[in-house]
Amino acid sequence: VQQISEMLTELFQRARLEKPGQADPRAAEFTLSLLVAMYDRSGTGYIKTRSAAAALIALSGDTLLAKYRAFFQFYAVPDGKAALITRSALRSLLTDLNQVPAIVGESCTPSCVEIAAHSCFHGVLNSAIVEEKFLSWLRSEPAVLLWLPTCYRLSATEMVSHQARCR
């Protein structure tokens, strides 16, 4: 938790320098509190870096494709020339990501994660998949992660303005 706190402090200090006035001075503190509530409910003082990264990626303002690629990079394992994501790694990713909606009471059962992992590997004979198969599955908007593209679309429309007059 202490290391993540230091990284968040540095991250938001840079953000305030690059975009003055757009990052709350307490953003690092608020973000750390959110991560602790999601991943350290028992107060051990330990949060997996990969879990925290998954949440930060999911909550970032980046495009969906960029988020999906980043998830793959954090959870995939190298296999010769390519990286692959295993069923176990996919389960970990889905479990980590589902802590985000769980913090607002929208939890998913472990069986949801299992069903989603099964759907991703449907028709796959190997124990791991390549990035393109992973991205294709995410683009199909699996139910377990439907909140992610929904939140993205909502945030993307916040800045839309229409030059129309109402009568």
UniProtKB/TrEMBL annotation:
<protein>
    <submittedName>
        <fullName>DYTN protein</fullName>
    </submittedName>
</protein>
<feature type="domain" description="EF-hand">
    <location>
        <begin position="65"/>
        <end position="154"/>
    </location>
</feature>
<dbReference type="GO" id="GO:0099536">
    <property type="term" value="P:synaptic signaling"/>
</dbReference>
<dbReference type="GO" id="GO:0045202">
    <property type="term" value="C:synapse"/>
</dbReference>
<dbReference type="Pfam" id="PF09069">
    <property type="entry name" value="EF-hand_3"/>
</dbReference>
<dbReference type="GO" id="GO:0005886">
    <property type="term" value="C:plasma membrane"/>
</dbReference>
<dbReference type="InterPro" id="IPR015154">
    <property type="entry name" value="EF-hand_dom_typ2"/>
</dbReference>
<dbReference type="InterPro" id="IPR011992">
    <property type="entry name" value="EF-hand-dom_pair"/>
</dbReference>
<dbReference type="InterPro" id="IPR050774">
    <property type="entry name" value="KCMF1/Dystrophin"/>
</dbReference>
